[in-house]
Amino acid sequence: MAGAAEKKIDIFTFQRAKLLQQYCGDIFYIYENDNQFLCVLADGLGSGHEAHLAAKAVIDTVKKEPEEDLVLLMEHCNQAISGLRGAAVAIIRADFDTKKLSYVGLGNIRFYMVDNHAKLSFPLSTTGFLSGKRQHFKQKVLEFKPGSKFLIHSDGLVLKKVKNYLTSSLCVVKTGHTIERLIPDIPMDDVTFVIGKFPE
């Protein structure tokens, strides 16, 4: 599943389930209003239906309160996933007024951003996964500039020289299709990525 969404930010999304199973253990959610953009990616542990349920619990929680403080949001997601398989989760929020991007992550989700001066930022997630057990979440704040590009993906995507894709002169959709062509038709893991560009 791939496509371009009608959003203020140029976005391309892609998802393919492990071995083309009915249920994908990765789920993403995008929320945008006049002042901010939020994207969350949840990767349920393992694959299949149980992994899907864990990721869905996270996404359903975010959908209820997408403008909540990110650390509190992660705490609520952690509570929601109690008793389920667990999930790696990353959330980004861009504030269009302050040009600040906030990031909170736990587990093997990767996030990269390149500003219009070709500087690559890649805040690392905290080791572990949401499980319902009490955890401490750290929020990192970056500055983005008009035209900055970003990529967030699950560990099913193995991508070398990420900066080359984010500094390419190609539009977001063409860049997304370029990355898509690197993914096997029948992948051995769930694969999800979201690539975007902030307004210039």
TrEMBL record:
SUPFAM superfamilies: PP2C-like
Domain annotation PPM-type phosphatase: ranges: 8-198
Highest taxon of source: Bacteria
Protein name per UniProt: Sigma B dependent indirect negative regulator
Species per Swiss-Prot/TrEMBL record: Listeria fleischmannii 1991
Organism ancestry: Bacteria, Bacillati, Bacillota, Bacilli, Bacillales
